[in-house]
Amino acid sequence: MVMIRVISVRACCLMAVLLAFCPAIATATADEPEIWRVAGVGDQDSLNARTGPGTQYQILATLPHDARQIRTITCVPTVTQQQYFAMTDEQVDILSDQPHWCLVAWHGKQLGWVNASFLVEDED
User: Fold this and answer.
1) N or C: which end of the chain has fewer CB within 10 A?
2) 101-106 and 70-76 as β-strands: parallel, antiparallel, unpaired?
3) Pairwise CA distance, residues 23 & 109, whole Å
4) How do 36-38 and 119-121 pair as beta strands?
5) 101 Cβ partners below 8 Å, 6+ apart?
6) CATH architecture of the domain with residue range 2-121
7) Is the CB of residue 29 less than 8 Å from the CB of residue 76?
8) 107 torsion bin: left (phi>0), alpha (psi -120 to 50), beta (else)
9) Would you kindly state where each structural domain of the chain is located, as residue ranges?
10) Reduced to 3 DSSP states, what percent helix, strand and coil does the chain have, rounded to the nearest 5?
11) In the chain, what is the straight-line distance between the N-terminal and C-terminal CA atoms, in Å?
12) Half-sphere exposure of 26 (CA within 13 A, CB side)
């Protein structure tokens, strides 16, 4: 129990530093909202969930344009605090410009990887 608490405190401190000093990559490294919804997908379209983080991967499933209550399992790209502070401004810009992908679950089932630009916090 003590070990878990120490790790949690360290994780919170790391997240605070990343959010304060690294806003451009906060979505790739910091603690995210727990629940997401699909946004920016047309009424007649759906969001593809793929076998890997990129459009070159096979589609496994789709999420409706109005899907809610989506949970992220992990997102990429991600860097550690040490890696981030060792990066040049140019490397930070390149990282910020890369598409972010998240492995998601919906209705209790892991679906696949989705482009994070189509996910927004589900506030309800």
Assistant:
1) N
2) antiparallel
3) 31
4) antiparallel
5) 53, 54, 75, 76, 113, 114, 115, 116
6) Roll (2.30)
7) no
8) left
9) 2-121
10) 35, 30, 35
11) 32
12) 13
Look-up of token digits 């089932």: 109
- What backbone torsions phi and psi does residue 106 show, to the nearest 5 degrees? -145, 130
Overall residue count recorded for the chain in this entry: 124
Q: To which residue do tokens 């759906």 refer?
A: 46
Pair of tokens at residue 46: 């759906």
What is the predicted pLDDT for the residue at 9?
A: 42
d(CA 29, CA 32): 9
Contacting residues for 119 by C-beta, under 8 A, at least 6 apart: 36, 37, 38, 39, 70, 72, 102, 104
Q: How far apart are CA 31 and CA 12, in angstroms?
A: 9
